[in-house]
Predict the structure.
Amino acid sequence: MNKRPSQKTKIELLLNAIKSIYSTNDKRFLVASLLLHIVLFSMLLVSWQSSDPVKLNSIPSSVQARVISLDELKALRSKREAEQKKIVDRKKALTKQKKDKLRKKELKRKKELKRKKDLKKKEAVAKKKKKEVKRKAAEQKKIQIQKKEKAKKERLKKEKKQKEAKQKEEELLKKKNKVSEQIKRKVREQRLLDKMLQAEAEREQDLERELEAERAAKALSRQQELALEQELSETEKFLSLIRSRVVNQWHIPPKSTGLSVVLQIKLLPTGELSSVRIIERSGVKAFDQSAENAARGVQKYPVPEKRELFEKQFRVFSMRFAPS
Amino acid sequence: MKLIITVFSFLVCVQSVYAELMIEITEGSDTALPIAIVPFANKGGFPIPYDVSRIVANDLQRSGDFDALPIGKMLSLPEKFDQVHFRDWRMLGQNYVLLGQLKYSEYTKKYVISYELIDVLSQQRVLGEVLSAGPKGLRKLAHKISDAVYEVITGVRGVFSTKIAYITLKQLTKNKQEYKLHVADADGKNDFVLFKSNEPMLSISWSNDGKHLAYQSFHSGRPAIYIQHIRSGDQRKVTSFKGLNSAPMWSPDDSSLVMTLSKDGNAEIYIYDLATNKVNRLTNHYGIDTEASWSPDGKEVVFTSDRSGKPQVYRMNIKEKKPERLTFVGNYNARPRFSKDGESLYYVHRSRGSFHIAAINMKTEEQLVLTSKTSLDESPSVSPNGRMIIYSTLRGKNSVLAVVSVDGGSKYFLPSNSGDVREPAWSPFLN
């Protein structure tokens, strides 16, 4: 009976063993268990964040129990503890490694973030600087325009002032001149009055002389007039003779009433025709031709012997042919 | 002082006279234009049926506008321009010289004529042509040269190639007469009889296309108006109303005839439409209205009427139909005919018992008697260029045809060997 314990005794023994285990190492096992859980959760969390999947060791689905002695149990327990400790240490090392990696990554990310932030900041600063430069340039320009306007206004003002000054000066000069002119005029008037009185006295004497001169001029003019009349009558005489000769040569074409042609005639001092030219056409060729032929038909034009009169009147003259 | 101003003004005037010396020529010579028509040289010596240059000379001489130099007075007979001695022609007082050559071609059986018209005063050739014609066409060709010369010198188209129509009367026996309707060249030559009858014929009128004649004839036993085609001789009776059918005259567009009819009881003026054969009465007066003719624009007619007691010329607008008397000088003015430009009216005017051809200016109403030296002048007909009037007049015992220029300046008679010649009518331009 003592060698072979009953089933009830076996279970009680196991429970007691377990109880003893728990009762002796209760606190350390609890901490280890908690740590393990934390590690597992951390790994799970890390594996969710990381791209590398976390490989978990498979947990045996069943435990094969065997009855061992307390020493064995103690040896086993110390072995297990050593293994447990080893696992925990490895896990700790792994966790630490991962933590370091995470920290490094975080550090890198932060660094990158910082760099970007710095870059943005730099850009913002540059933009601000540019804006500032632009604003300053606009301000400068505005200032320049204002300066120019101001200068223009000042110039205009200056000119106006100058003009006014000039006007004033001119008015002053005018006034001065007027006064001076008035004085001069009065002096002149006085002088003229004196002269008039003197002239009045002399006029009587001059009158006779003037009358005499006028009589002489009259006589001279009459002579000139007579000479001109003679010249004109001479001209008229030759014009009449020429007209008569041309009329005799002009064969007026039928249906010429209302037509008119003007010819320019050039003569030689002998009365011969030098040239004839149509200077105003009638529009009817036959009519123009008839007039030209009439002018050409006169063998010799009657012209004055006086060379001067010939040059004046008959060297070149015009003839208008217009049948009435 | 005044005197000085006067003298100065006078001098200024004289000076301006000097500057504008212009001789006004308003009259011309009364004489005709001298022209020398040198006999055309016959190159080859082939006989020539007509003396072409002589026909040209006669044409130009007859126009009254030219005075052709007799051949005997010519100092040389040049055939070409470069043979002309201008000094000689100028000495002879010639303004123009017409010269040419004529040669017969055996191959074409035609005469080839080349001619040149030379202006002596400007020493330039103003016209030149080469023409050809058969022996029968030489006369026509000569008239063509005359037309060209006339036109280039005067600026007016020549009428030497036109025709005339007239009627001759021959007393066959004491009671029998022969009337003939002739068509001839404008110089009276080359005539042919278009129609003949023993009954009277009167009032010839040329259609404006020159293809037909309208006239009055009694050959059917009663007065009727006929139209006859000149080339074919085809004759057509237009009207033969009861009473008078006389004095037909073609309208300017040849669509109708104006005529005298007495179908309604009295001699009145009617327009006969040749397309519809309808008549349109223009006058309505108890006096005799007759011898109507058209104005050039076809809007008016002029006619003779004795409504005032004596024959006088009246004018009527064919739409308004209100007659207006035009002649007041003398107690006989009849047979009016408008000038081609419508500015003058020619008619028969009686003065001191003689009948003459007279003209009235439609603007100034000035009257001019054109034929004072002949008597019994009648039937005036104006040439198509408006320069000449052909009419019949009494010469000796016979009636002959005469031509007078519209200004009365020149006149000639057309030779005839056909007894009495009367009722002349000048054709329009035919080409």
